[in-house]
Amino acid sequence: MMTKKVAVVTGSAGGLGRGIAERLLKDGFSVMIHDINKEALTKTESELKDLGDVASFVGDVSKKEDQEALVAATVEKFGQLNVFVNNAGVEAVTPFMDIDDKELERTFKINVFGTVYGTQAAAAQFIKQGTSGKIINACSIAGHEAYEVLGTYSASKHAVKAFTHVAAKELASKHITVNAYCPGVAKTKMWDRIDEEMVKADPSLKPGEPFAKFSGEIALGRYETPTDVANLVHFLASEDSDYITGQAILVDGGLVYN
Ligand SMILES: NC(=O)C1=CN([C@@H]2O[C@H](COP(=O)(O)OP(=O)(O)OC[C@H]3O[C@@H](n4cnc5c(N)ncnc54)[C@H](O)[C@@H]3O)[C@@H](O)[C@H]2O)C=CC1
Ligand SMILES: CC(=O)C(C)=O
């Protein structure tokens, strides 16, 4: 009997992470969902359980020990690890001159330190197993372009892209691939908060206008859904992507071209 492959998706109580977890369950993976929000995570786990083997783990990606514990709990529950999706992330919406220590520290601790710690914990497990493995990071259009009032967030996603390239180069000899998905404008709770903050930063804007402006520029004419993102992560988690590493792939409906 073939053993089922095992995936971890961080920050998967809702939003894009949940969509990715759903797709990987449908693909036949055993999936460890994970989030800092215990209540939402428990609810999501019960909603996903009919799709396949799902378990949950509460943790904070910005804490190295939590990331290591997440990998250990996954291996204890499902016997191995094959795919690790560093999905959890937070936004920061602030005019450049008002960016402060608190925002820089929070955003970089979660988006950048979290991705590094998750990659290290997953790669250590792949090496221990003596198997190949796939690490898949959440980048963004903001990791390719830089957007006004999203300076801290854009810088953090550029750092995620750089770490994706470097980890891919260093881990290739161990048959570990490292890639990133770069969504555009998806209507999750993150964009609800971005919209609210952009309106606060520019009172001439009405609620909903920032989201409408960003999504109005998408060539394919609609905003992104978690399924759009999950379709790419499904590919990056599959054997069909075995010869791809170090790439930060845009999945944005035609918004950023580089
Ligand atoms: N929504 C969008 O349009 C885009 C999102 N992204 C990226 O995709 C990823 C997912 O975004 P969304 O689903 O939209 O966000 P979201 O805010 O809707 O969901 C993020 C999830 O991560 C969890 N989380 C936050 N901090 C955490 C921490 N320290 N440890 C563990 N879990 C934590 C939250 O509780 C939440 O369940 C993020 O990395 C984001 O930067 C990238 C481009 C566009
Ligand atoms: C949320 C996000 O990643 C943006 C605005 O690019």
UniProtKB/TrEMBL annotation:
It comes from Ligilactobacillus pobuzihii. InterPro entries: 23BDH, NAD(P)-bd_dom_sf, Sc_DH/Rdtase_CS, SDR_fam. The lineage of its organism: Bacteria, Bacillati, Bacillota, Bacilli, Lactobacillales. The keyword Metal-binding does not apply. It comes from the Bacteria. The keyword Cytoplasm does not apply. This is diacetyl reductase [(S)-acetoin forming]. PROSITE patterns: ADH_SHORT (PS00061). NAD(+) binds at D35, D60, V61, N87, Y153, K157, P183, G184, V185, A186, K187, T188. It catalyses: (S)-acetoin + NAD(+) = diacetyl + NADH + H(+).
